[in-house]
């Protein structure tokens, strides 16, 4: 195909390649023979010791051995078993991007890939999440342009703490993705992108940016609009190798002239863009909100109820972070005020960044009703744990059941035990309220 045995321009351009991707089951039957054949005909020595006209060239430097795809039970896909998932059918139902990202996210080296439609559906929702983030940005006056991707070169290009934080998080994600791709850890790269786009950008930055985008300060609003555009463009660029169709479409509908596939990788986005002070402040705020939300969910506090918070022990940095971001904290954690004081009897303890807080919930929830609900759940959970424990610890079960069933049983037991521990902690906290 490249003109061999003549030393053509095509051969010089396309041979050798850099990486061969294959399954471990054909390393000798195919990969080793490719190596031997190609080194022989493109540089091997004849019986008389003469060298062929072309210099010796191996066909590829690296061999990436991918996992084998199995069904969600770990069985090899077989038409006779009826457990084959046709990629074309999956693409028709969930989209090519969702299928691609699923395979990348599960592509751990040395491990079989258990493919399930639930996982693919989840990553389809991930693509929708990015799309909705772009829609949110446009509804708040954010505009995109071909010059925007290079707009932030130094951390000094942005002033507001929130924007400095998200710029640093973007740089951290880019470096994490690069390191994973260099090591052929496509699962780690996909995981880093998923956490960054969904959790950091869509869950936190979008929520935190709303007051700034909808506020009266024109300078902060303009900076936040530009930063939002820059961050979302980096999301599209970094995700493009994994989800090329939705990112290319978003790139087009946001007003860019050229195609994203012809763009450049954001190599200039490095750790120099990380501002440790802003990072510490925003991460403390996120940790505090998550802790309060977790306690509220555990105690079944009504979603619309605002509760007071008592700061039992906190340092100066935590005080400053809370003071600077109090409106955000109040809105997202559904709290009223944060006041200094000792924890009253029966308050729920909450920790965040090494600081201790108390949530007085005696007047907010029906303690007796919540105790009855949790005890009922604990009784049901205890029965499940007893049954799973009996199976998992039975030598006959371990010897006779398929390995994937044994593994699934042990995983379910661990999950139920964790749930029981959380329920017991909630019951202990309720006991203090009585």
Structure summarized in a few sentences:
With 434 residues, this protein is α/β, with parallel strands linked by helices. It has 15 helices and eight strands. The protein has a four-stranded mixed β-sheet with strand order 6-5-8-7. Strands 1-2 form a two-stranded parallel sheet.
Highlighted features:
flat; 434 residues; alpha/beta; two-stranded parallel sheet; 8 strands; four-stranded mixed β-sheet
What's the quaternary structure here? Answer: single chain
Q: Per DSSP, what share of the residues sits in E-state strands of 2 or more residues?
A: 5-15%
> How many strands?
8
Give the C-alpha Rg: 28 Å
Largest sheet geometry = 4 strands, mixed
Lateral arrangement of strands in the main beta sheet: 6-5-8-7
SS element count, helices: 15
Measured between the Cα atoms of the first and last residue, the distance is 81 Å
SSE series: HEHEEHHEHHHHHHEHHEEEHHH
Mean pLDDT: 87
Q: Note poorly predicted spans.
A: none
Inertia-based shape: flat
> What class would the helix/strand composition place it in?
alpha/beta
- Roughly what percent helix? 55-70%
Question: Please, could you describe this protein's structure?
Answer:
By secondary structure, the protein is α/β, with parallel strands linked by helices. 57% of the residues lie in helices and 9% in strands. It has 15 helices and 8 strands. The chain has helices at residues 9-14, 27-41, 87-94, 96-105, 117-139, 161-182, 186-213, 218-239, 244-253, 276-298, 316-324, 326-333, 367-392, 395-400, 403-433; strands at 19-23, 62-66, 69-71, 113-115, 307-313, 335-340, 348-352, 355-359. The strands form 3 sheets. Strands 6-5-8-7 form a 4-stranded mixed beta sheet. The chain has a two-stranded parallel ribbon with strand order 1-2. A hairpin with a 2-residue loop joins strand 7 (348-352) and strand 8 (355-359). The mean pLDDT is 87.
